[in-house]
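Entry 14. Ran structure prediction on the chain below.
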Amino acid sequence: MQRTTNPVSRPTSRLAHHPQLRVVRLGAAILTAVLFGTMLPLTTHMPASAVPSEWTNQNTGFVTRDATHLQVDGQRFRASGANIYWLGLDENVGGVDYPTYFRIKDTLDDAHRAGITVVRSHMGTSTSQDNANTLALMPSLGEYNDQAFAAMDFAVAYAGTLGIRLILPLTDEWEYYHGGHRDFTAPLGLQPDDFYTDSRAIGAYQDYVDHVIGHTNTLTGVPYSQDPTIMAWELGNELEGMTLPWINEQVAHIKHEAPSQLVAAGRRFDIDPDTLAAANLDIVDVHYYPPTAAKISADAKTVTAAGKVYIAGEYASTAATDDLLNAAAADSNVTGMFVWSLFGHDDRSGLVAHDDGFTLHIPGGTALEQTRADAVEQYARSIGVTIPTTPLDAPLITAITRTNGLSTVTWRGTAGATDYVVERQIPGKAWTAVHDGTLGASAGTVTDFRSPAGASYRVRAINASGAAPATSDVVTPAGGDVLVDPLQDWRLTSSHTDTAVQADPQGGFVTAVGGGSGTVTWKQNGLTRAAFQTDNTAALRVETSTDGSTWAAADTTIGADGTVTADSLTGDYVRVVVTGTAHLTRATLRSAVNDPTTEPGAFSLQSPTVGAHDVTAVPTFSWTPAADAAYYRFSITDEDGTTIAHTDGLTATTIRPDVDLQPGVTYRWSVTAVNGVGSTSSTPASASFSTRALPTQPLVVEDFEEYADDAELNATYVRNTGGGAITATLTPNPDTGSQAGRFSYDLAGPGYAGVVRTLTTPQDWWGYSGLELSLQAPAGDDVTLQIVAGGSYFETTVPVQGTGWQRVSVPFDQFKPPAWAGDATLDPSNVTQLAFYLGGDGAGELTVDDVSTTVAPAGTDPGEPGSPTPTIPPATGTPTTPGSPNGGASPSQSAVTPSATENAGTDDPSGGLAFTGASFSGALVLAALGAVLLGVVILLITRRRRTRTAAGRVHRR
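Output, structure tokens:
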């Protein structure tokens, strides 16, 4: 049966009945912008008057509900979905700001290429209190900043051009940067739960809803309430306190304002029974961290039995497997699966990073991401989506930086590219790659180790099909630095007046406000040349300055492609004056750079010191910096002079190589500093060290003998508060006569329970082969052992057999990163946590005793347990604990290394090798950031119930 388009009369609980809360609207927004000028966004968006044909909406009919299914034009509609929560207000690039049109476009393009047909986004949630976030749509209760609609308008309009539909939550349970339901209660002196019962809070929320739903898109001219691109409005994200009267009132209100659109609702875990009872609610949204095929099938059956449409509105991307999604595709009760959460390319280089452990890039920045992205695409195929075959857009070289005689090329990637090739050309020669092979989808930086004089560069993007690549414009650095600004935000400019970034389907351009006259200014040391691309050369004037205040006209030439170029600039400042309706689409600035005239300066090896003994098999090597070094070469050889490890292109002065060293063996290590002139060996030229011999006695990890009473045990083994109840007590071990730890648990609610011990002093388990422990638990239960090693989480599950005590031995290679923790390699030399978890239903007792390491048999190569990076098994119903969002994982070291016979600075156009942005120096920086984030997340875990486990998402921020 078709949904009734105007089912009930308009409710009377309105903010209009509370004059003290009536909106100030645009006047207040302008006043706020003046008062809080220091918080202006990087991108000043301008309401656009774009040609309507630019925004042709492929969504010509509304999605309607037919009982438990959705339809479009009379045909059943199932959604291949993704969450892109940040489309209206972003937190991931340079702090909280409006996302650039490029980032919105790029990520939606990636989604479209993977067959994603519906995107769920929190862009409809944009509130704060007392101007705490002046960029919000509602900075203060009842006051509106309509400039915030610019990014939202672009997202809605561009999604429509791709045929993507949207589900938009209107508030949030959680107090994130984009706001939540407390923004409608706290200013009124109310408690959070009053959001669902107090007429003032309900009126304030409904006024906000009206402002959003009633907005007319400045790009398309279509009100949100009449745009088929918006499939559904969601009452809020994961609302925990909804009541049936509140749901019914808000559904009626929204359907009055937007009679052609659907309404959805859901809470954090499981199914809210009030959503099943709400007569006019269309869609029930259920979230999973992690999902299982059985749970999804059971929930979908429950929801459809109540006459509602079922969607998995969020599921952990780490669990995106063919097994899970094939089962969902085969289940006719499942209308949509929405992966959490999708990100695209950064505006300057590489991929946007996020720290909740569930970040997904399409087609995938790592091998694991590629597998997950492929599973998402296969799900789309399985439900009948035709995957588009869209040509690649060209990548954009954003900078060429000259450092100590070598040039580094940086580029902005393009949607759909799986690989890149960076090429150089010197006059009269053919184009040649500056690196071996291809660079992956996450790449964005490469250093040309030869950097011959007169070289030009370009970047080619390649997709999975191997179709004709898309090639960037050619950039010639001429021995200096080049900065390319696509003018889609203000991050590279020093100032701008009376200009704004205006939207178009290509990602935006700069134009003068109101068709008048405006300026954009840049400052670059040693500036020598500036070139500008525009659609109207007569409307541009270029000026130069030595101090940024006194300006003189610069001589310019106009190229055949319409580029306006100013040479021989007189100072470090350049500005362009743009008038009328001219579009300024790119600025390219060139600066002079002084190359070194001698090879790098002297430097020395630091650690391991000469003759060091008992070094673990995975030491961190360090050395002092060498003046004027462009990069370093690192090598390890054995006693016979055979090279064990060799890495080139290091810019940091430390490295922990990905190599297995034998125990009780002497090695030598060396470092060479290189620049465009030559190379310098370290002092001493090499240093010897000996690795530690294998241990011969097990290490006691936990025997429960040190605890005086139950209170001390509970203080050491801390309950994971996101899970069920669990209490620790001391108990005798009848088999040994010693003391054991007993953990009484109740799995009701979250479906898991666990305790965590943080070791006072990190333990070194290197050289051991695994763990042994004695345990007793209900037969058929599974016990998850979890450790934190080297800042990363690893776990394994042990099945319980029988009802008595059992001695369990677990090799280290059975410990894998949890699905939410990301990729990592187990380093047992620095273990900081031990945890025990149970999952499932019911209550019981787990008793543990005598946890120790196991000694490797004589002659065993300890290697790196878990190396190479372990394959993460399919997610199961056994919950796990939250960890560092990045899991402490480091990107793999670049395999792009020049041979010892290659010399920097040669002009040989053939071959060529390079250092990519995935170098170990980058890994060390990321590892350090991961360590900081780990501390922050652990603090947040103790404070926020938002904390996710395998049954929930880690805090997004």
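The chain has eleven helices and 55 strands. Will compare against last week's run tomorrow.
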